[in-house]
């Protein structure tokens, strides 16, 4: 309605973000963040005791077959797994987290310089990419940095996080390439198959900041969603709050110091023809006194759409395993995802072939 739209515009144009609301001393969250009674009733914070797999890459050369098997199982079921001994130094992970936190805790006038909703702007700070489409706003601020395939000019990054972001981007690209090799092998394909499909060609780094929430029972840190990319690599701090939806309910993803969390994206589920699963996940509103910080690396060409068309990989198809999805471009997929907003429903259903969609209904 008009009142809500005006409240959204007022908040957005203030450029203060959720962090600014907390700094102003509020004790109640604004109405734009409050869930409906139906949404509140649907939030079951009691998670089932299912463990997110932990995969150790320490002896990857000797144990590659076992590692690939473990990844195949995790990617094909819960869609998430934690990786330890991944090769990125712990010191760099800690410096990246510190830089992400320090940006969001800068004086408001310095952060406001980076505030933007321009889709093609490479570095931008904002609250909720779908602020004007969502049923309720999420209690989270984000600094988004488009790092590849076009190399980002370091001068576009905030000085406080510039050097560490460039180095983390370089190292996470190397690690991501290894993960795509292992995923290719898990599909029974050559190691470089997914890389040749440009799955590892582009990536964005998003620095998320979840301030303490005075009424955490009334909103969410981030609404239930799946990621519209090929793959996400997440670095999270010790606060917790991330949950994954399984067949048995919501599963907590406990922070593991020094580990990187990996989850399958929608586009990888599409091209694997449902062999790999892109799973709904969410973050509860922060109930702690300290902010929650995470750094997500999205492997996607979403902001550099090519004319390339993606569909189920032909080598994976057979009479018994026909294609589930139609072909689509990354631009079409991402545009649909963004226009839809985070509504708790997978964008993949829109791209199912007609006969498959009829069977599933």
Report on this structure.
The chain is globular. The mean pLDDT is 94. The protein is α+β, with helices and mostly antiparallel strands and 361 residues long. The chain has a single domain (2-360), classed as Jelly Rolls (Sandwich), CATH 2.60.120. Helix 4 (64-76) crosses helix 7 (162-186) and helix 5 packs across helix 7 (162-186). The longest helix is centred in the middle third of the chain and has 25 residues, at 162-186. Helix content is 31%, strand content 19%. An eight-stranded mixed sheet has the order 1-2-10-7-12-5-4-3. The protein is built from eleven helices and 14 strands.
Count of helical regions: 11
What is the helical fraction, as a range of percent?
A: 25-40%
What spatial order of strands do you see in the largest sheet?
1-2-10-7-12-5-4-3
The low-pLDDT segments are none
Overall mean pLDDT stands at: 94
CATH topology: Jelly Rolls
Strand content: 15-25%
Instruction: Give the class-level CATH name.
Output: Mainly Beta
Q: What value does the Rg take, in angstroms?
A: 20 Å
Overall, the morphology is globular
| Secondary-structure element pattern, one letter each | HHHEHEHHEEHHEEEEEEHEEEEHH
Strand element count = 14
Topology:
Blueprint lengths: L1 H13 L2 H7 L13 H6 L11 E3 L7 H13 L3 E5 L5 H15 L3 H5 L10 E4 L14 E8 L13 H25 L6 H4 L6 E8 L9 E6 L5 E6 L5 E5 L2 E4 L7 E5 L1 H6 L9 E4 L7 E8 L9 E2 L17 E2 H11 L13 H7 L1
Parallel strand pairs: 1-2
Antiparallel strand pairs: 2-10, 3-4, 4-5, 5-12, 6-11, 7-10, 7-12, 8-9, 8-11, 13-14
Helix pairs in contact: 4-7, 5-7
GO molecular function, one term: metal ion binding
Keywords: Iron, Metal-binding, Oxidoreductase
Cofactor: Fe cation
């Amino acid at each position: 309605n008009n009142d809500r739209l005006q409240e959204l515009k007022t908040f957005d144009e203030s450029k203060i973000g959720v962090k600014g609301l907390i700094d102003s001393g509020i004790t109640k969250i604004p109405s734009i963040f409050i869930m409906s009674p139906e949404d509140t009733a649907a939030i079951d914070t009691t998670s089932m005791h299912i463990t997110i797999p932990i995969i150790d890459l320490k002896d990857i050369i000797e144990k590659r077959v076992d590692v690939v098997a473990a990844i195949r199982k995790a990617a094909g079921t819960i869609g998430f797994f934690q990786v330890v001994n991944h090769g990125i130094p712990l010191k760099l992970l800690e410096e990246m987290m510190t830089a992400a936190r320090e940006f969001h805790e800068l004086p408001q006038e310095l952060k406001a310089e980076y505030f933007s909703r321009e889709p093609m702007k490479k570095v931008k700070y904002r609250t909720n990419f779908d602020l004007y489409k969502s049923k309720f706003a999420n209690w989270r601020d984000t600094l988004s940095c488009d790092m590849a395939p076009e190399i980002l000019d370091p001068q576009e990054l905030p000085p406080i996080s510039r050097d560490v972001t460039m180095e983390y981007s370089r190292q996470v690209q190397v690690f991501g390439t290894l993960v795509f090799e292992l995923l290719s092998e898990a599909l029974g394909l050559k190691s470089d198959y997914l890389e040749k499909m440009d799955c590892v060609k582009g990536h964005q780094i998003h620095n998320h900041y979840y301030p303490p929430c005075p009424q955490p029972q009334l909103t969410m840190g981030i609404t239930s969603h799946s990621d519209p990319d090929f793959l996400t690599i997440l670095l999270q701090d010790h606060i917790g709050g991330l949950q994954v939806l399984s067949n048995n309910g919501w599963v907590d993803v406990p922070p593991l110091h020094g580990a990187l969390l990996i989850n399958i994206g929608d586009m990888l589920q599409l091209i694997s023809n449902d062999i790999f699963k892109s799973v709904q996940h969410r973050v509860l509103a922060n109930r702690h006194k300290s902010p929650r910080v995470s750094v997500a690396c999205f492997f996607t060409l979403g902001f550099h759409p090519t004319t390339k068309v993606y569909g189920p990989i032909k080598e994976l198809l057979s009479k018994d395993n026909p294609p589930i999805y139609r072909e689509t471009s990354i631009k079409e997929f991402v545009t649909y995802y963004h226009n839809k907003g985070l509504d708790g429903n997978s964008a993949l259903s829109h791209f199912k072939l007609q006969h498959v969609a009829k069977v599933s209904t």
